[in-house]
Amino acid sequence: MSETKTHGATAGRSWLWMAVFAVISLIGGVMALFNPFAATMAATLLAGWTFALVGILQIVQSFQDKGWGGFVWALLFGILTLVVGLSLIFNPLAGMVSLTLLVAVLFLVMGAIKLMYAFSLRPLSGWGWVLASGLLALALGIMILADFPASAAAILGILLGVELVSNGILFLFVALGLRRLRQMA
Q1: Which end of the chain is more exposed for a tag (fewer CB within 10 A), N or C?
Q2: Which of 24-28, 135-139, 168-172 has the lowest mean pLDDT?
Q3: Residues whose CB is less than 8 angstroms from the CB of residue 68 and which lie 6 or more positions away in sequence, other chains included
Q4: DSSP symbols for 52-68
């Protein structure tokens, strides 16, 4: 059997998994878009639990080898991470506001960086796409801040929904390609 057919048969077996991932992502994305507040709350709580778990693990890890020079810093990092996680878990509404502000600032910073990068690429073809991406990021950051803090109730959920729908479409196309590959093998 040729290497291409072997690879096709192996990759083709996973098409069903990709299709399942596509359906789950698409359903989750549509649900997030229909109820962005609930999705924002879920994202905030998930971030909180993740920070809390990482903080606990960092604290435990810091005590594994107290003799090294970074013990105090590792311990402080773990405590700070745990505190951030607990604040998101026990006060998710304030957490939504904080995370939304962080997202807006990230959009603004990334937009500015992309604009500078686009102008440095200017002699090359395709630099306009980088410019467009930078302008879009700036616009999103400004839109979030223009309606801040009210935007905190929905923006994370909308972004989550868009990302899940995008992933669902990606997984769907990959599944269809793998299915065709399987049929050819």
Answers
A1: N
A2: 168-172
A3: none
A4: HHHHHHHHHHHGGGTTS
